[in-house]
Write the structure tokens for this entry.
Amino acid sequence: SLLSIPVYFVARFSCLLPPSYFLSSLTRNSEKMALRLATFAAGKAVLSTSRLAAPIFIKGAAATVVSTRSRGSYHYQKSLPRLPIPEHEFAMNKYIDMVAPVVSEEQFASTKKLVEDFKKEEGPQLHDLLKKYDEKNKHSSFISHFWYDVYLKARSPLPVNWNPQITFRYEENAERDEPNGKAARFIHASAEFYTQLKAEVIDPDVYALKDTVKSPLFKSLVQWVPESFSYYVAYLLKGYPLDMSQYPRLFASTRVPSREKDYLATYPDVDMRGDGPAPMRGPVTDPSRLSRHVTVQYKNHLFEVEAIRESGEIVPVADVRAAVEEIRKIGDSSGPAFPMGCLTALDRDEWADIRQRLVESSSTNSSSLRSIDSSLFVLSLDEVTPKDETEEVRLMLHGRPGNRWFDKCFSLVMNQKGRTAINFEHSWGDGVSVLRYANDVFAKVKTIENSPASSTPASFRPLQFELNDELKLAVAKSEESATKLVESMDLQFMEYREYGREYLKKCKLSPDAVLQQVFQLAYYKHKGKTVSTYESASTSGFKHGRTEVIRPATKESAAFVRAVAGGAAPDEQLELLRKATAKHAKLSLEAAIGKGIDRYLFGLRKMAEIAGKEEPAIFSDPAYTLATENILSTSTLHSDVLEAGCFGPVHPDGYGIGYGFAVEKGADGSVVDRSGYFVSSFHNDTKGFLSAIAGALDDLKPLLEVAKKQAEAAKEGGK
């Protein structure tokens, strides 16, 4: 191809440029990217992708996937930039700003002195150690290994504390939401996605800042560029490839409980155990190297159901539906089984001990556990019909724990109305890969015909457990413990229909930044103070990037909150709102491009620990706890296929806030611009805090009306 010649030279030239060139250029263009990356540990924008498929021929029930190019799903992985380590002086100054709004003046003065002392010698020494550690791990990022350990060493139960959930929208009509047919379509579509992922023919994840990235020309150009500098060519064309190192653990993976530290296992390659990303081994086209079944739960019963045949053919939807219907008949006729899933809701050390006893006591138990561990995912079919949206989402988060398997990479949870959610274990990855799976699979599900059950059910078998009296008692106690755990959490929902994302855009204000100010105002009015607040930002634009923290509680937000609560003049309130949202946008930008400081500070602490040093005084300082304890933990997501998302609180006295925007068009052509809020707490007056959020949203209405008029006037004046 003649096009490959200029592309080759552009790529060669780009590799001669220092990384600082790309970082500085990234900074110049990154506000848009930051706003797209900085949410729900994953991102807000729909991914733009380019098909770069490896040679592969996979048979499916309805179609054959054929591709001819030599570049695959991980085409950009080798040339992704590495997560930068912030400059020490910059990070320490930013830390001072982070602490200021959440501590007293006296505490702030003390902390500032500690930081100044730390900057003189101890801090630079630890910074140098972190740089050296990073140099020794060029295949990864400075935070990756430590962050996997944060999850895998945690001993608290997975439900409520760690596993989040995201809920799909309903389909177009009730017939397509009938649960047996829908379950079969989800299994079929997921198996197809899995085979394409293993064959490395799914498109690489790329964020697009220009529509040209979505064009055939972009795809034609980048597919000829060698992997060692493919990222730079995409970057020059305004595409930002994302890290895909988490994808190998998306399917057929599990978190295995172990004393002191769990580990991750991915099948069928038994050596893919570890505490980090699974190795990328190249395209897999041999069906014998695939995991070929899913685990289906119903009324606590567990079944192994074939999803991919030995030939590599994906089992037809009608056959899968027949198997699902047979499973329901078995569960309905025999009643609930022993609630083995409750074991996965235990303290991790306790579950590790029980699992070991299960394996040692019976080869049947060992075989059943291995079947669950190696399955593509778990499908949990619930027999209940929730009374309202709050109960529905709550059941998706933790359900009746006997009918869940929280260790699994992800589970699809489906109730009697056909409402479906993804509940995922968080250690192996963040929202980027899960959101990609959700988008692609739901789109496929909508295209699959709602077939009646066939007369030839997919192969399935019940998974049995042989329990002695000691193990029966352990399972019974785990059910009591799991019930107590889920009942300890309160979850409430509120929908606000006065204004939403589109209206805020007309005000020339960032919708996400405005809502973060709403949360600050609501908490101040509810509790009378400003507290540590967490908003997740993705660093998936870097090799083995995970997440960084946006800290919405700032000096600017505190000033805005005090002005509103104190009844300051509306003009002053609006000016302070603009300053607070601008600061939030700046922090979002910095987090997305590797200039956040939470993970950096954590890295310094780990360096002190590894070096056998005494913990630096700034980390034992009460201000550090106050600044990082995350009383408010917030996450949002945006996808046309999702309806809701929620998670548990991360602090005993805190709130977990899952929020999002939606625009609905009525039958009469009217448009409803709305926002929704799922708030969780450990029975810490959740309804009262939701009421405070509604009040804060109302407080902003007159300010936003002025902002909208000013934006319209400015637009008219610019014509």
